[in-house]
Specification:
Chain lengths: 980, 547
């Protein structure tokens, strides 16, 4: 209760600020007109943004490069920005008709970079920060906003293991693995809301992504920054003529590669095959051949220099490749900006919502596994109209499941934030920020009385469940920032306080024993299981947890002659999740920059436009662990008889650890930013080495005397090092034709340096458990000093004459599977790509634009578990892959995990090809009109024989191609963008 | 613009940070309880006292996980978990157990240690919390306090007894968290600790009565003492036959109570294991189960049942087709032994009548899913690739889905029964006390049966034969040899998690051959201290032969 009260009191702060009175006076305005042309050929530039400096007033130039802007009379400077050109500031003076020439730029030194609690110009940045702006986003339909920058940031891995399944997220990881048990994904900050919800972002509402890569950049976010920070900035209101933008796309998908299984005739030649008499391709039945997704986003913006807005609404229906696997979503985003008190008070309010309804039933791996292995002669239905269930181990009829069950999620997400910034004296501002993020969903399931699940587990009485989830994050932050320039010294400092309180509540019920299917899950009480103890017990559960995060932080940026730059950051942060002795931690960082190209001795090298050297060191933390891990709690341990009545038992559920503390990452980063040859070639190179210490995990505890086997504590170190390269080039730029190239490349090496200290120790970490049958164990093992992602297993030595496995023993001799033991196993491969690269080529010819985007990952191995199980004759009476007749024809033994099933995994994908055409329109009603077509996942070049070589490569379960594989698709998108 | 006065700036900044001083980081627990707000009434106290009992399900009973019970059976001569085609290889761990080639990093070695010490931790925690608790405040008496602390100490002693059986030399800890690195104690010292704990507390326990089913009563306590003394020669080098006999007599004479008057051998060979076995007159200590009331079912279906076994019983689950009976174990029963007929599934398997299609006689057969997919499921008394035409003894990698006779000693009833899957797991039953006493008498008598010993064994054995067969099947002092006693013990207690200890006591565990097993070496009578524990506790010492 107290927390709520203080939170409300804090929310009152903006009101307090408003109570301080000022006299207001009506502002005078003036109108400036002009023409913008491009250097060197002097062609008029359309679409250049002209902003009155210090305000949000902005207009764009028309097709002939002309503009007209009305600004407050106190504005003295206009700022001209356009993609591909250097930003230019022009003093207005007495001239009201300006002729402005912009020079091309590949280095974008004046671009604004969002760095957390503030912005910097690109040339001032001393840490490793990558920026991707809307113009550079991947085009076409995306499910997660992060798809927009997949492959665009060197070192940022974004992998969609579920393909285009609209109900799955992307796996995100920056610069390798940073935690064993804690969260490994970067912190997402949306318009200043840390931990913002990605569902609230629509592709057309996003202005830019800024990725804080190294420790010196990320330290300002303290205990949550080990995985890096991704700052997402949405489009905001701007003054000027009311503008409307409408974006539309429709998307169609086809399966990129289908598994090659035995035909019914081939299958019937196999031992144990049974002919049910039909010819059925279940895989094709799981595919929605008429899939079509569409997306609409409509935005309106306008206002004046004092008050402006942007509002957008969207509607999206995602019908992916799999049946019973859809998502419909709609919502809106509203931004309002206001200036008052003689421009001393700035107020910004954002509201965003997302309503979505997801069909979660289809698209799961199990269905596709069944589709491969189902007897191809088995019809879907028995003659009597019931579903035909084949009898082999772990079989079920996936079509029956999809037709007889229901699994839906109805979700609403909402965020609202407000920021008031008051300029006290020139250069000194105070700001208060409050935000609420609420995420709630209701899940519902029902299984018909006739369904397999109902028949097998609920005595044919159907099964219904409902559950609710509610999370609510409340954030309050205050900052004071000060900017001062004295001669050749410039100083920028910010100090702040941050408070975040989050709760999660869940509730769920289930019941069975229904008389009729008529209610589905809408009459839970009608199930007999609540009275009939002979039926499986109905379920009921509820749960709540909370956590608090409090921080004090500061940052100082100092620059001398704009040549020597330094940044100091300190965040002092406490999290409720840690032990009583270690709630608080300090996260310092320092980085320096040297603009070498500004030095006199560099002036002789005319071909160097800019050259900057950066170096930084920063400490960040990770508090992404479950709540209450430091406390001993008593939890339920099952029912036992107490004087004739069955009661729950209670016992300790955790070993206590009052010393539990955050994971700590220390990172060095050295980088170079450069731009040469008339800004035709630019880029950045970063080299980093990072060391994450005090890894949180469950370590073996001395047992006895501890009650439980493990203690959640801080032991161990992961180190990674890598190189990241970004190159941008403009090989051709003429009046009608331009060609831009962006290249990213990175290498990374992750090593588990230690998993022990004086007290605690794990001798190995194992991952990648292989599925039944056979319980072949874990396929990945990491040991101290070992590389993360190492496959660990037997070495294939051939087959015996009768097709039995032979493996190498430790001593080099050959032996059968039954004679192998732990000592014979060794590292046989690695599933983490060593190198990743992407290449974007962007061509513009007159009104046409063409983008080719290639993406690749290199030097890793894939464990092909589809071959391991489905490629084995022993899989009969199930259907098998055709390789049982070819590649594995000699094999006649039970499945065994060994390097026999490891394949090289490197690939290059033509991931995106987009052709656009800006239709010239001669009407005053339409500002711009563009149509485009995008193909995604168009071609894959690889040696890997499986369906797709791009598998999970984040975390620890890397490089395993699982049996149930959501189909990867080639998608074709047609889009329309119109502004009026 | 009007300039702000400095005083206003200071005032504003002060106001700003006045709001910014909350630094409280307490965690509020909503969905669990902590020690500080628990133990407010009798039921809460008992909820902690009974926690080790539900935990013991994991390691002491028939479960699909590495516990005491599984190690006792899979390393001995009656059960095996052979590879059956693509199923059951499981990293060759079952093969290693059968061959006595386990390693210090096998989960089968690590997990029983963890689970049993975990249970000891629950006991230590409860004893500490209850010792400090003012019982009168919560309406309980000092006598009740003494009794439930005694019960907790006795069940803790039982944990140590089983740990000592597996690992021999182990640390003794009675306080949570202390000492940080408890040292290994020699087995004789552990034995003395267990004996003292039992002797000090057993007589504080109540006599067994129906309301105490599933609990540690005086009957359970003396059964533990009987087991301790029976194995004393193996565990300490010093035989304690008279102490064993005395402990058995306490129970046999009815001084410790029973579930239905004084304990008596059940007349039925199935009743002690049935879904209503909480009423069996011979059961002395069982881990209680009631699937309907608690939602927890015993673990035997997963271990023993075939992938289609639900059809045999009309049950709501199938098994993992894991364990099979070794041919030598099945062959040790004579055909007229009712235990052979009742406790096993062999031959053609038929669906439960409730599941048959009355209009389709062919529908009465259970079909296989693997080597015998879509063919009748026929359990055979051999473990070899019959589908590939193999003859002979087969082996651990040569199994098929229908290999071996199957477990049918505990039966689930039908899914529609009120007591479905309600079988308590029997830890001690009177039959074992009879066998213990008879064995002690014989060993005291230089391995020769006395009439009293023969009478005790015959009283148990008689239930397994028809009256017509009995005259030829009854033992005499000359036919009940030590070898025969071990064989009969095996026949009687098959599946009950006792075989390894019995074989060790009779000297055959590491010296005998059976089915696919060759003699190992004497050090294998103890399991190694898990490498994982040695790595974090420098005060632990590895057992002989595993260095």
């Amino acid at each position: 209760m107290k927390k709520l009260c203080t939170f409300l009191a804090r929310g009152g702060l903006p009101v307090l600020l408003l109570l301080l009175t000022y006299t207001t006076s009506y502002a005078q305005t003036k109108t400036i007109t002009g023409t913008v042309t491009g250097s060197p050929d002097g062609t008029p530039l359309a679409g250049v943004t002209v902003t009155a400096k210090g305000t949000t007033t902005a207009v764009q130039t028309d097709a002939s490069g002309k503009f007209s802007i009305t600004v407050p009379s106190n504005v003295t400077t206009l700022v001209f920005t356009s993609v591909g050109y250097q930003m230019q500031e022009v003093a207005i003076g007495s001239n009201t008709d300006l002729q402005v020439t912009l020079t091309t730029s590949a280095s974008s030194l004046e671009d604004v970079v969002v760095v957390g609690y503030g912005t910097q110009k690109r040339k001032e940045v001393t840490a490793a920060v990558a920026t991707v702006k809307a113009e550079e986003f991947n085009q076409g339909g995306v499910r997660s906003p992060l798809d927009l920058i997949q492959g665009k940031v060197a070192g940022l891995t974004i992998t969609r293991t579920q393909g285009n399944n609209p109900n799955s997220g992307a796996d995100i990881q920056l610069r390798g693995v940073t935690s064993l048990s804690g969260s490994r994904a970067p912190l997402i900050v949306i318009d200043g809301i840390p931990g913002g919800n990605l569902d609230l972002l629509q592709q057309d509402d996003i202005e830019s992504f800024d990725v804080l890569k190294d420790g010196s950049a990320a330290a300002i976010y303290g205990t949550r920054a080990n995985g890096g920070v991704i700052i997402i900035t949405t489009k905001k209101g701007r003054s000027g003529e009311p503008r409307y933008d409408y974006n539309l796309y429709v998307q169609r998908e086809v399966v990129a590669k289908k598994p090659d299984v035995l035909s019914p005739e081939e299958y019937l030649q196999m031992p144990l095959a049974k002919d049910y008499g039909s010819r059925t391709n279940v895989y094709d039945m799981l595919i929605d051949k008429s899939n079509l997704s569409h997306y609409h986003n409509f935005a309106a913006s306008g206002g004046n220099a004092k008050a402006n807005y942007r509002a957008s609404v969207y509607y999206n229906q995602a019908n992916p490749i799999a049946i019973r696997n859809g998502r419909t979503q709609y919502g809106g985003r509203l931004n309002i900006n206001q200036r008052g008190l003689q421009d001393r008070l700035q107020l910004q309010v954002n509201l965003a919502t997302n309503f979505n309804k997801a069909d979660l039933l289809g698209g799961n791996g199990g269905d596709f596994e069944q589709a491969i292995q189902r007897n191809p002669t088995a019809p879907i239905f028995n003659p009597d109209g019931t579903y035909l269930e084949t009898d082999a181990f772990n079989n079920y009829n996936p079509i029956a499941r999809l037709n007889q069950e229901l699994n839906e999620r109805d979700q609403q997400t909402l965020s609202g934030d407000a920021r008031a910034t008051l300029t006290l004296i020139d250069g000194l501002r105070v700001s208060a920020f409050g935000a609420l993020v609420r995420n709630t969903y209701n899940d519902r399931t029902y299984r018909l009385k006739a369904s397999r699940s109902s028949q097998q587990s609920y005595q044919g009485g159907g099964y219904a469940s409902k559950s609710n989830y509610l999370s609510l994050d409340r954030i309050f932050e205050t900052t004071v920032d000060y900017e001062r320039r004295i001669g050749e010294h410039s100083l920028n400092a910010i100090a702040g306080y941050s408070y975040q309180y989050g709760t999660v509540e869940t509730f769920g019920v289930s019941n069975n024993g229904f008389l009729t299917d008529a209610f589905l899950d809408w009459n839970m009480g009608a199930g007999n299981a609540i009275r009939n103890t002979l039926l499986p017990a109905p379920g009921i559960s509820s749960f709540k947890e909370d956590n608090t995060l409090i921080a004090f932080f500061g940052r100082i940026n100092y620059a001398f002659k704009q040549k020597y730059m330094a940044q100091f950051v300190l965040r002092h942060e406490g999290s409720s999740r840690f032990g009583a002795n270690n709630k608080w931690g300090n996260f310092p960082a320092v980085s320096v920059g040297w603009m070498i190209s500004e030095e006199p001795f560099m002036q002789q090298y005319q071909w160097i436009n800019s050259l900057k050297l950066r170096a930084g060191y920063g400490v960040t933390g990770n508090q992404g662990i479950p709540n209450y891990q430091s406390l001993v709690t008593l939890s339920t341990g099952g029912f036992y008889l107490q004087d004739g009545v069955w009661f729950q038992t209670y016992g300790p559920s955790r070993n206590p650890n009052p010393d539990l503390r955050w994971e700590k990452k220390k990172e060095w980063n050295i980088g170079v930013d450069f731009s040469v040859l008339g800004n035709r070639l630019g880029g950045a190179i970063d080299v980093y080495t990072r060391r994450t210490e005090d890894l949180l995990s469950n370590y073996n505890a001395q047992q006895p005397p501890f009650v439980l086997t493990t203690l959640f504590t801080n032991v161990g170190t992961i180190t990674s090092r890598g190189v990241e390269v970004l190159l941008t080039a403009v090989p051709v730029r003429t009046k009608d034709f331009s060609w831009n190239i962006d290249l990213t490349w990175n290498s990374q090496y992750n090593e588990l340096t230690s998993i022990s200290n004086d007290l605690y120790k794990i001798d190995r970490l194992e991952f990648g458990g292989l599925p039944s049958p056979g319980n072949l164990g874990n396929s990945i093992r990491v040991v101290e000093g070992g590389r993360i992602g190492d496959f660990y297993g037997k070495r294939f030595a051939g087959f015996t004459d009768d097709g039995k496995w032979l493996f190498y023993k430790k001593d080099g001799t050959k032996a059968t599977a039954g004679q192998m033991n732990n000592e014979d196993l060794t590292v046989i491969g690695n599933g983490v790509p060593r190198y990743m690269a992407s290449l974007t080529s962007n061509f513009k010819y007159k009104n046409f634009d063409l983008t080719l985007f290639f993406r690749g990952k290199f030097d890793y191995d894939i464990l092909n578990t589809q071959e391991l199980y489905f490629g084995n004759k022993g899989w009969s009476p199930n259907n098998m892959l055709r390789t049982v007749l070819t590649r594995h024809a000699q094999l006649n033994d039970a499945p065994q995990y060994s390097d026999y099933y490891l394949e090289p995994g490197g690939f290059v994908k033509l991931d995106n090809i987009t052709l656009g055409y800006a239709i010239p329109v001669k009407t005053v009603y339409i500002r711009n009109l563009r149509v485009y077509a995008t193909g995604r996942n168009v071609a894959t070049f690889t040696r890997y024989s499986g369906l797709d070589p791009e598998l999970q490569d984040t975390g620890f379960n890397t490089g395993i191609d699982s049996r149930g594989f959501y189909p990867r698709t080639l998608s074709l998108t047609f889009g329309l963008q119109v502004g009026f | 613009m009007k300039k702000l006065q400095p005083i206003r700036i200071i005032g504003l900044l002060t106001a700003l940070f006045a709001f910014s001083t909350c630094t409280k980081l307490d965690e509020k627990i909503y969905s669990a309880v902590s020690q500080t707000n628990f133990y407010n009434n009798r039921q809460e106290v008992m909820a902690a006292v009974l926690r080790p009992f539900t935990h013991a399900r994991a390691w002491a009973t028939m479960q699909d996980r590495h516990g005491y019970w599984r190690l006792q059976e899979l390393t001995a001569d009656q059960q095996a978990w052979p590879q059956k085609g693509r199923h059951g290889y499981d990293g060759a761990q079952w093969i290693r157990q059968h061959y006595h080639e386990w390693t210090v990093t096998d989960r089968a070695i690590e997990e029983p240690w963890e689970l049993i010490y975990w249970g000891i931790g629950f006991c230590n925690n409860t004893i500490r919390d209850l010792t400090d608790l003012d019982f009168t405040r919560i309406g309980m008496t000092e006598e009740e306090k003494a009794s439930i602390i005694a019960e907790t100490k006795v069940i803790r002693a039982w944990h140590y007894l089983k740990l000592m059986d597996l690992y021999g030399n182990i640390p003794i800890v009675t306080t949570v968290g202390e000492p940080a690195n408890p040292p290994t104690r020699p087995r004789a010292e552990v034995f003395a600790f267990i004996e003292q704990e039992l002797k000090d507390n057993v007589d504080l326990l109540p006599n067994l009565e129906p309301s105490l089913v599933g609990r540690v009563s005086k009957a359970a306590g003396y059964a533990m003492l009987a087991e301790l003394y029976l194995n004393a020669e193996v565990w300490t080098g010093t035989p304690r036959w008279d102490d064993c006999i005395a402990a058995c007599d306490k129970i046999i004479n009815g001084e410790c109570g029973g579930l239905n008057g004084p304990p008596a051998l059940d007349t039925s060979i199935l009743a002690p294991f049935s879904v209503t076995n909480h009423k069996s007159t011979e059961n002395l200590f069982q881990i209680a189960y009631d699937y309907r009331a608690s939602g927890d079912a015993p673990g035997y279906p997963a271990v023993f049942w075939h992938y289609r076994q639900r059809q045999i019983y009309n049950a709501d689950r199938d098994g993992n087709n894991e364990w099979v009976v070794t041919p030598n174990a099945f062959d040790s029963y004579k055909d007229n032994d009712l235990r052979k007929q009742e406790w096993f599934l062999i031959g053609l398997q038929k669906k439960h009548p409730a599941l048959r299609d009355p209009n389709n006689p062919a529908d009465s057969i259970v079909l296989g899913t693997e080597e015998y997919a879509n063919q009748p499921l026929v359990f055979v008394n051999n473990i070899r690739r019959n589908s590939e035409g193999e003859n002979g003894e087969g082996g651990m990698t040569r199994g098929e889905e229908n290999s071996g006779a199957r477990f049918n000693k505990y039966r689930p009833g039908q899914v529609t029964d009120p007591d479905y899957l309600g079988n308590d797991f029997v830890v001690y039953r009177l039959t074992e006390i009879y066998f213990n006493k008879a064995e002690a008498l014989m060993r005291k008598n230089n391995g020769v049966a006395t009439q009293e010993a023969v009478d005790l064994i015959n009283a148990c054995r008689k239930r397994a034969f028809t009256d017509a067969d009995w005259p030829t099947e009854a033992y005499t002092t000359s036919t009940l040899t030590m070898e025969e006693l071990l064989a009969e013990r095996g026949r009687e207690f098959i599946f009950e998690g006792k075989r390894r200890s019995d074989m060790i006591r009779f000297g055959t565990f590491t010296t005998a051959s059976w089915w696919d097993h060759q003699p190992s070496n004497p050090d294998k009578a103890l399991f190694p201290i898990p490498q994982k524990q040695l790595a974090i506790n420098p005060a632990l010492k590895q057992n002989k032969g595993y260095d």
